[in-house]
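Let us work through a complete example step by step.
Step 1: write down the sequence.
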Amino acid sequence: MDPADDGERTRRPGGRNARVRTQILAATAELVARDGVAGFRYEDVAEVAGVHRTSVYRHWPDREQLVVDAVSSYADQLASVADTGDIHRDLVDFLVAMADGLQTPFGRALEQAIQPVREHASAQALAQILERRVAALRRRVDDAVSRGELPAVDSAFLGEMISGPVHLIVNRGMRPFSRADADRIVRVVLAGLRASE
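Step 2: predict the structure and record it as tokens.
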């Protein structure tokens, strides 16, 4: 064996181990979405991830921790709201991203997490992502109010007004949610807010 090859292998970032972990986390999120937290099994994770069951056990000997880690790996991408200085555009982008996210296996897992009993660490981790998303939206709305982009408004109420239709359209699955839908929702809600100032 060429020592140079071995050195090259050790310098390569991530590698097979990181790839296997990523596959396992993605498979876990998909299975939680499909079967719920209580219903998924290591055997199914291995099959969906395309890895051996021992790989799942080796990386995550604790089933609950596997779910928590799978959920947490998606937290940052789901809990951010851009601040371009244009509140209308930022809210439209937020709704489009929310709709896209809700249609993924992980987004469906988040939707399921609204209902379950919260004593399990995995259910609490799912709930925390939802709370982080709400908090990020509140911060963006509060900043818009302080800069004069919006009149004084209860940011939690505004978030509920704009996100409710997204959940309704996506969860019913009757038609795709579009950017035009997001724009119409934001336009109507902000117009009503400004008219009632």
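Step 3: interpret the result. Residues 121-146 form the longest helix (26 residues).
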